[in-house]
Amino acid sequence: MSGELGQPQAGPSHAGLDFPNPDRNRAGVPGGVIRRAGSQGRRSWIQKVLEQITDSPLQWVTPSEVVPVAVLAVQRYLLEDEPRDTIPKPPLYCYDVTISDGVYQEKCYLDPSLNFLVYKNILKVGIEMKISRVSCLYNEKRLGQGILCIDNVHCGEALEAISLETPFRNSAHEEVPERPLRGGKSHYLALWNNEDPYGDIWLTNKQPEEHNFNNTKIISLSHLEMTWANRRNFPALLVRILHKSKLRYYGKPDKKMIEPYQTFLEVADSSGTVSVIMWNALCPEWYKSLRVGLVLLLQDYSVKKSYPFRMQPLPVDPQIKLISTMEICLNLRDPPTNIIIIPEKQVKPEWRLPKLNHRFITRSELDDMPENHICDVIGILVFVGRVQRSKKKENREDFWSYRWIHIADGTSEQPFIVELFSTSQPEIFENIYPMTYFVCTQLKVVRNDAQVPKLLYLTTTNESRVFITGHRGQPYTNDTKVKNFIHWIKTRTDSEEVKNTVIGGYYPYPPVPETFSKYSSSVKVESLLTAISEVRKEIEDLQYREQKRIAIQGIITVIKYIPHASATENASTSETLRNANQPSTSQAARRENQSQERDDNKRHQDDDPVSSQCFQTTYTSLSPTKKKRILQGPYAKLIPVPQPETSAQTKGNKPDMPSIFQRRESTSTSTIGKARKTISDRWESQLWREKKFGLIDHLHYSHVYPESIPRKFIFEQRKFLTEQFNSQPAKYIPPEGRPPKLDDFKSARSLGHFEVTILGLNHEIAIDVAFLPMYCPEDLRTSQIDTLLTCMNYSCVYPQDGAGNDRLPGPRALAGDIIKAAMKLDRVHIVGILDICNLGNNKVEVYLHRIYSPTNTS
């Protein structure tokens, strides 16, 4: 028998197993059009499991043989309510996991009880996985069909390479467009957010086409505004796109909509500008083909009263009337809208369609821009941070994706600092790296001059668009400031760019205010303070790449300096020990952070992560004096981090210098030796010695992982580095050759950091966190550099020895000052601002961002 059964009648989202009729030959294996390995080939483990579940009287089986399979895809979708569900639930996202046993591929449904493995990025593409229990979920609306469900797994290590040549056992899983295994939703969502278009339903093939206007009646927007309420049929609109918003996904389990998307276009003719809403299935068909500046002919649309609470973006031309009483609705039906892109060469001057007017500003002009000012920027990327995520609402599964970037334009020593949220352009958001020419429109100014340090950065809006390639021919290329930037960029040299650009790492931005009362008024949370007993739950609730800021009360009882050299020396050993003990079964992973709780003496660090201004940005157009004062963030005249070449920075080599707090033997007389006061690299309070053995819980989260270390950017390795600091992809991407390791790339910082132990006020729970020293050089004039609080007030990295400024002490003096300052806080109740970060795969970091003592809480 050929092993080929009838094609299953799989609906748009029900492509699963096709169970054979019992009267058929028992050699028939469930699964649609079945492919069998040749008689001489290796037997498929997937096929054997399916045979076992077919013969089982139960709906689940424990495979007789558990062998490793490779994970090729993890795909997310919204599962609609089942008929038995009577109470609406919040959105429930399901996951289909594609596995390969080396003979076949199979798409399986992941039991929702294992969703947390995806939330924590433990179950991800490219790893080896052992499935210890499977079941069959039947489709009761179709005859003899079901899908293979994964009920229990053990997630292993990443594989060096996985072949994509193995075929699907069930040919229905190869259909285009791809369909989820369950539910009525016709498509997959992006894995980590809902704003990005994902999958093959999103078309890009819409092209301009010439139109014969002889029989086309056109109505102006101003005339339509006055007459739409009395019309049944509306003449065509001829408009230009001025703004395009990111996508909004509004799917819910109890709403049976196939493609519940919405996007806004701001369009204009000579009489006014109005909002156009594109709904549902039109979004996958048109969204990626429409861009700002295109001229559209819209026919068979509908008009409704505008939503009163939506703020329209400002018109590009202040002379154009802003129409806010109505909205144009485009739908696939009711009525079916007809959209035509008019080629620019057919656009006639007498139509008087508005031109695009950009609001480009330079970095030197930003200092004078008011709060909430909308602007466009152009520059070269000098820092690209890792992708991070933040919850849209507490207790929900929806997240924003964002990253921090720095843009230089040559008009200032300071770069633009931009909080770049996903703009529904994943092809750009996931492929930006330093040394790229970068344009971003519709950015909003965020500033607070009353805060110390002053706050100043840009953030994206709903209408922001990003451009990194194809600048030639864009409307903004004729802008004067764009031309000035292009002229400036020609003076730069590749060697300078390679030397001074940085990618990835922990980025603690924005900084918090100088007093706790200002901090209290600046945050929007239900509970301002988190009890130290609740910190573990806060950490365990974090999902992959989620970063959250909390405030706790406690007492600093231990502080230990970890120099850069020691961190590098012990990095690989530390990682090996941790990875060897990581829980990876679905049961053990629930206890996820236990592998981090080790003895303090075994937790040497790799390196310290970046502060909010983590790197040098020297430009060839600047003078040598100015190069020493390149800003590392939004504040004036901050000191850069020098990057001296030392043997201690070479992986595997021991440092030439001893540990910077190693006790040195006196070469003078014994009297002088006794008089000399040595400094220890670790301070422990008497309170800690009294309480540490009676704790009910001690959380260890001071480890700094390689992903949190900013790396010097190497253009030739841009693909590898970009992948490391992007989110985990939904589908496996084979590496090109043998990829390097992240530790092989030089850190953009060469400073050490501190491990700080904070004891709860009730002396029952303690937490170890990492602390990065920061300060502002103005403090030298006020002699306040010897306080721990001052070091945390600012967002400038403390310079290395030999930074080019003789007034500044090196890290040896810094560490001593901070440890002495910590001793002064002995038994003092402080408020600590903590940044907690989930890096995925059971890796969590907690950073002490700021402390407030009784002197600065008001």
UniProtKB/TrEMBL annotation:
Annotated Polar residues bias: 569-588
Residue segments, region Disordered: 1-35, 569-618, 642-673
Database matches in Pfam families: RADX
Compositional bias of kind Basic and acidic residues: 589-607
Domain of life where this protein originates: Eukaryota
A GO molecular-function descriptor: single-stranded DNA binding
PANTHER family hit by this protein: RPA-RELATED PROTEIN RADX
Name recorded for this polypeptide: RPA-related protein RADX isoform X2
Source organism of this protein record: Vulpes vulpes
Encoding gene (name): RADX
